[in-house]
Amino acid sequence: MKKSGSITQEMRFRMKSSSEYSQANFAWITSLLLTLLFMFNSYDYGENVFRPFILTAFLAYLFFTLVQSFVTYKLRRDLMRDGSISVWTRRMGWIQLLAIITGNIFIVTAAFHLIRRGKSVEYTFAVYTVLTQLFVIGVSGLNIFKPYVADTFLPAMAVLLLIMVIDLIVLFIVSQYAPAQMLPRWMLIVSVVLILTSITGNLFALLLGVTLLGRIRRQGKQKSNFWNDLWERLAPNVTAMSGLFFIVFLFSISICSFYTFDYSVAVENNYSALLQPPSLAYPLGTDDFGRCLFSRIVFGARISLIVGCMSTIIPVLIGGVLGAFSGFYGKHTDNIIMRLLDVLYAIPGILLAIAIIAAFGANTVNLILALSLGSIPTYARTMRASVLYVSTFEFVEAARALGYNNRSIIFKHIIPNSLAPMIIKSTLTIGGAVIATSSLSYLGLGVEPHIPEWGNILKLGSTYLETHSYLAIYPGLAIILLVLSFNFLGDGLRDALDPKLEKA
Question: How far apart are CA 61 and CA 351, in angstroms?
Answer without folding.
Answer: 45
